[in-house]
Specification:
Blueprint: E1 4-9, E2 13-20, E3 32-40, H1 42-45, H2 48-51, H3 75-101, E4 105-110, H4 115-119, H5 122-127, E5 131-136, H6 144-153
Parallel strand pairs: 1-4, 4-5
Antiparallel strand pairs: 1-2, 2-3
Length: 165
């Protein structure tokens, strides 16, 4: 059981952590973020050349040196839909983990592109009586210790304490 669930998300990856107290506070630092797994978005991780035939956007080639014409291949809409689907998976896993660990607070730290998709369903956590905090920062590639330091500076979770304190 943990009071905090931390979800660190980008368009390609979401990581889940609980904040656990030190087993022996007089001998160990704590509380500590404990890795509870991750989700990967295979579409976001795919190379653009695997999804689209032409790597250049917005320009077509005209025959015999004529002026090129612009076009829209809807890449941004495709990316939005991919992130929307991935955010649903992230929120579902968040819901399951919150229930399993009986958390009281959820902290979302997400990239600028991902946070709007996560915000769409955050209200359901609030209706369940959970406190929800969000930070717009992509921390998906940081270590758990670095994530905890950043979140503690923002006063989103408690800072680690030295042994015996």
């Amino acid at each position: 059981m943990s009071d905090y669930l931390v979800v660190v998300a980008s368009a390609a990856r979401a990581r889940f952590f609980t904040l656990e107290p030190a087993e022996f506070p007089e001998l160990e630092s704590g509380p500590n973020l404990v890795d509870q797994g991750e989700l990967l978005n295979p579409q976001a991780r795919a190379q653009e050349r695997e999804l689209f035939a032409d790597s250049k956007t917005g320009r077509g080639r005209a025959p015999r040196g004529s002026a090129a014409h612009g076009y829209d291949d809807h890449r941004e809409q495709h990316e939005d839909e991919s992130e929307r689907r991935f955010s649903r998976e992230v929120l579902e896993k968040t819901r399951l983990m919150a229930e399993k660990n009986d958390v009281r607070q959820i902290v979302f730290a997400a990239s600028t592109r991902m946070i709007p998709f996560l915000r769409q369903d955050v209200e359901r956590f609030v209706k369940q009586g959970l406190e929800v905090r969000e930070l717009i920062k992509d921390m998906s590639k940081l270590t758990p210790e670095q994530i905890q330091d950043h979140l503690a500076k923002e006063q989103a979770i408690p800072a680690r304490r030295r042994p015996g304190r």
